[in-house]
Amino acid sequence: VSCPLVLDGQDLKLLSIKIDGKELK
Fold this sequence. Notes:
Helices cover about 50% and strands about 0% of the residues. The protein is built from one helix and no strands. It has one helix at about 10-20.
């Protein structure tokens, strides 16, 4: 996953959720 390093805490959470798939909503 290619993403900028300007991600905030919220963005990081969303990214993690995306990586995990539907593990978290």
